[in-house]
Specification:
CATH class: Alpha Beta
Largest sheet: 9 strands, mixed
Order of helices and strands: EHHEEHEHHHEEEEHHHEEEEE
Radius of gyration: 17 Å
CATH architecture: 4-Layer Sandwich
Strand order of the largest sheet: 4-3-2-6-5-1-11-12-13
Mean pLDDT: 91
Distance between the termini: 24 Å
Structural class: alpha+beta
Number of strands: 13
Number of domains: 1
CATH topology: Glutamine Phosphoribosylpyrophosphate, subunit 1, domain 1
CATH superfamily: (Glycosyl)asparaginase
Length: 312
């Protein structure tokens, strides 16, 4: 039916502490991304189009740990991961350890639609990007001063492993429901500051960690401590609770609480069901998010703090 409620929800990663002026830029960033995704849906675009559009917007915004602005690995370089999934037929595409391209999410979508595979990595992904005509850009174009500072700080902190679960919770993601009742998710990240070269987190793992989409249940994108998310299969675990008849709120709380109690892992998620109800939840200090539905834009960053405005 055409009167399905269109919805897009985005997150800009979890965070331990965000300065006042950065809070404003981050809120604007997620609000813009949700609006971009929502407009795609209103023009008849698919859920896949909408989540890709929203995530591209966040990759292009240097405030977020994805695309330009990604954190640096131990070698001082940007290595990015991304994935996308279509709830209609469970088709999925992912890339990991990609360098020198502006929008890894676009490459993930091409893996989904132009190859028989789900997941390409490193040099194979680079070769495929070139074949598909995705322009290579100098790696330095993705590096910001802020990322350089973070790497310096991390390298100088002794015993930083203990704090690792608490910081660097940066991933961007989106979920959407379109007019045909299809859901999708997309997610993209630069990973963890000072990570080992070749480290892969939860973001490209469509095995139900970084995200999942199934028309029969809903769609989810996760963020937080990647290793913890992988171990509990956070995305699929949350959808499992939803399938069992739990509410969106309960499903989100159950899976996040499990990850926290079992592994001390902090994280967050955005979740929609097949009828377009949505929820955002996190256990990290804050998580920038925005949701667009019924021509209204909802956004927030800290617990119990939501702003609602009318979309043009």
């Amino acid at each position: 039916s055409v009167d399905m409620s269109l919805v897009v929800v985005v997150h800009g990663g979890g965070a331990s502490s965000i300065s006042k002026d950065r809070k404003e830029r981050v809120r604007q960033g997620v609000s813009k991304a949700a609006t971009v995704g929502y407009n795609i849906l209103k023009q008849g675009g698919s859920a896949v189009d909408a989540v890709e559009g929203a995530v591209v917007t966040l990759e292009d915004d240097p405030e977020f740990n994805a695309g330009c602005g990604s954190v640096l690995n131990a070698n001082g370089e940007v290595e990015m991961d991304a994935s996308i999934m279509n709830g209609k037929d469970l088709s999925a595409g992912a890339v990991s350890a990609v360098r020198c391209i502006a929008n890894p999410i676009k490459l993930a979508r091409l893996v989904m639609e132009k190859t028989p595979h789900c997941f390409l990595t490193d040099q194979g992904a680079a070769k495929f990007a070139a074949t598909m005509g995705i322009p290579e850009i100098p790696g330095e174009q993705l590096v910001t001063e802020k990322s350089k500072k973070h790497l310096e700080k991390d390298k100088n902190e002794k015993g930083a492993q203990k704090a690792e679960c608490q910081k660097n919770l940066g991933t961007v993601g989106a979920v959407a429901l379109d007019c045909k009742g299809n859901v999708a998710y997309a997610t993209s990240t630069g990973g963890i500051t000072n990570k080992m070269v070749g480290r892969v987190g939860d973001t490209p793992c469509i095995a139900g960690s970084g995200g999942y989409a199934d028309n029969a249940i809903g769609a989810i994108s996760t963020t937080g401590h990647g290793e913890s998310i992988l171990k509990v299969n956070l995305a699929r675990l949350t959808l499992f609770h939803l399938e069992q008849g739990k509410s969106l709120e309960e499903a989100a709380n159950l899976s996040l609480d499990y990850m926290k109690s079992r592994l001390k892992g902090l994280g967050g998620l955005i979740l929609i069901n097949k009828t377009g109800d949505w929820v955002v939840k996190w256990t990290s200090a804050s998580m920038p998010w925005a949701a667009a539905k019924d021509d209204k834009l909802h956004s927030g960053l800290d617990v119990d703090e939501t702003t609602i405005t009318d979309l043009p």
